Amino acid sequence: MEWEFQVKKISSSDTEEAKYFCDLIERSFEKSQRRPRGVFKKLMEEEPKFVPLLLYADGEKAGVLAFWDLDTFIFAEYVAISPEMRNQGLGSEFLSRFKGKFDKRIVFEVEPPGATPMSRSRVLFYESLGFSVIDKEYLQPVYGTDRKHVHMWLMSDDPALFDVSEHYADKIKASAYNPMYVL
Q1: What is the value of pTM for the model shown?
Q2: pLDDT digits (tens, 9 = 90+) for 121-145
Q3: Which domain holds residue 116?
Q4: Taking each helix axis from N to C terminus, what angle separates 90-99 and 119-128, rounded to the nearest 10 degrees?
Q5: Burial class (CB within 10 angstroms; exposed 0-12, middle 13-18, buried 19+) of 47
């Protein structure tokens, strides 16, 4: 199916779009894998490198993407499709288009196979879109004092990054996990 996409940047935390963004993140990610709502709001208002997007498909709210535009690469922190829109090819088409928008590498975290019932499927899904595992030892920093570290893998659209994944992990931790954005 061919989707007509629209993407809207969320630039204010006091909008219906921001509420939808936070609600979908909370429904899609475990508490240990997401920021508290108040931190999202602060990022939306104050952090120019943080880019929260609302995805529309055929005029309907369909999902969200949040990424960090770092110096040499894009760190895609969250991708979530609304439950009622899943399994229709929307995520594949959207991520394929997203990959084509940047002249920078894209790096993101993913749960390793076996972590949850869906984690193996997610890794295979991303691999089918041309992403490769570049780091199997990555430990996601905590998002708050009431949360724990999570063992994740880093994936990228450039498999050559395997040899330098530590550099990317350090950049991600210094920017996206800055203590200023953790409660």
Answers
A1: 0.89
A2: 999 999 999 999 998 999 998 887 8
A3: 5-181
A4: 50
A5: middle
